[in-house]
Amino acid sequence: MKDVLVIGGGNAALCAALTAAEAGASVLLLESSPREWRGGNSQHVRNLRCMHDAPQDVLIESYSEEEFWQDLLKVTGGLTDEKLARLVIRASSNCRPWMQKHGVRFQPPLSGALHVARTNAFFMGGGKALVNALYRSAQALGVEIRYDTPVDAIEIVGGHFLSASSGAQRFEARSCVLAAGGFESNREWLREAWGQNASGEWPADNFLIRGTRFNQGVMLKRMMEAGADMIGDPSQSHCVAIDARAPLYDGGICTRIDCVSLGVVVNQDAERFYDEGEDFWPKRYAIWGRLVAQQRGQLGYSIIDAKAIGHFMPPVFPGTVADSLPELARKLGLPEAAFMRTMNDYNAACNHGQFDHTTLDNCFTEGLSPAKTHWARTVDTAPFYSYALKPGVTFTYLGLKVDETAAVRFAGKPSDNLFVAGEMMAGNVLGKGYTAGVGMSIGIAFGRIAGAQAARAVKQMKTTSDTEYAAA
C-alpha cells in the first residue's frame, strides 16, 4: 500500500506528488490520459501570476499583494474567499525557486505579451516543457506513475479515504489528493449547467474546449455523491472568446484572439454588446467567452482596421480581409445595413484622445451604448480585418469547498486523509472571471499544501499505530 495516492496528472497533481515525496512519503500518481497527452490543461499554460516586491530575473518592477488582491477582486466581482486568495497570492511569491529545483525554467515574456512582464513569469517552452520537467522530477523522486488509468470510483467511509478504483483495478492508500480537473469536456454536464436560452438554443452545444478532452468531471460527480461540501456555480468557468475555427479539444493558447480591445465586437445581428476597452486584455479576456456564449448562435466577430496591426499577438489563422467595411460585412454574412449603422455610430462617437494601448488611455466614446471606455479609435483605415469568435472553455469553477489545509469537507468537517488541489477546488478563489496566470498560482499553492498535508496525515497514522502497538 502506498502512503499517498494522487488522482490526476496536471500541474496541481504533480506539485502534490512532488511535495509528498519530498516529505518522505511513497506516492502513486494515476493519470487518466495516455502518456502522450499527460498533463491535462497544464500542457497549454504559458505563465504564472506572481506577487513580488522588487524586480526579479524575469519580472520587472513590483507587484504587491494588495495589487494582486485588487486585480482578483475586480475580475471575480467579490466572489472569492479572501483568506484563501491571499494564501495563494503569498505562495506565488516564493514558488519559483521550488519549481526551478524541479527543472522548470522561466523566460522573459515573448513579444506581444510585454504588458504582463510585471505580473507574470513565463515558462520556457510553455506548458509542455513545464509538465515534462515535473514528470521527470517526480520519477527521479520515486513517484510511481500509471497512465491510461481513469479513476471511476472512490471509497470513503465517514469522511475517511480508503481506496480508488479504475475499472477492475483497486488502489488503496493511507491518504489521497484529488487533482483530476473540472468537467469542461463533459458536454452533457455543460448543457445541464447552461440550459436553454430564450431562443431555445443549448449554448453549450457550440462551446469549444481549449483544454484536455479527458476532464469529464468524474471525480467531482463521485465526491458530490459522497456528500462532500461543494462551492461554485456550475455555469461559471474560464471561458475565452477564441477563433471559431479552433479544434473541438486541445486548441490551447494558439486559438486566442487578442485584438478585441483594439476594435469592436459585433454579434450575428451586427450589434455591439459590451465595452471592448473596459480593461487590459489579460484582465478581461476570460469574460469574453461568456459574453459570446450569450449571443445568438454563440458567435461574435472582432472587427479591426489596419491601424491595429502590430499592437497585438497575431492569431495562428488569418482573418477575413476586405478593402471596405461593406465588403467585410458581405464576406462575414452579416446584415450590411445594420453593420454599417453600428460602425458609423461607433466611429462618430470616438473621442480622439491620445491612443496608448500600454495604459488605460483617454480614447473613449461619447453618447454610445455600450460605451467603449479606452482605446476607442475609429475603424476607418483599409484593409479591414475580422476574426469569428466562439466560446472556448478552459476549466470549470464548480469544486470542493476547502480551507487553508486543502482538506475535503463533509458537512463542514474536514477529512483526516483526503485533500484536493487545482481545478477541483479553484472555485474557492475564482467564483467567476479570471486574470492571466492565476489558475497556475492556485494549482501550485494548493498542490503543495495538499501534498504536504497528505504526507503529514500518513505520519500521524503511523505514529498513532506505533503508539497503539507499543501500548498493547
TrEMBL record:
InterPro entries reported in the protein's UniProt record: CobZ, FAD-dep_OxRdtase_2_FAD-bd, FAD-oxidoreductase_2, FAD/NAD-bd_sf, Succ_DH/fumarate_Rdtase_cat_sf
Known EC number: 1.3.5.4
Cofactor(s) required, per the database record: FAD
Top enzyme category: oxidoreductase
Keywords of this entry: FAD, Flavoprotein, Oxidoreductase
Keyword GTP-binding: no
Coiled-coil intervals, chain numbering: none
Molecular-function GO term, any one: oxidoreductase activity
Gene3D superfamilies: FAD/NAD(P)-binding domain, Succinate dehydrogenase/fumarate reductase flavoprotein, catalytic domain
Domain of life from the UniProt record: Bacteria
Domain FAD-dependent oxidoreductase 2 FAD-binding: 3-429
NCBIfam families assigned: CobZ_N-term (TIGR02485), PRK08274.1 (NF006130)
Protein name: Fumarate reductase flavoprotein subunit
Gene that this polypeptide is encoded by: ifcA
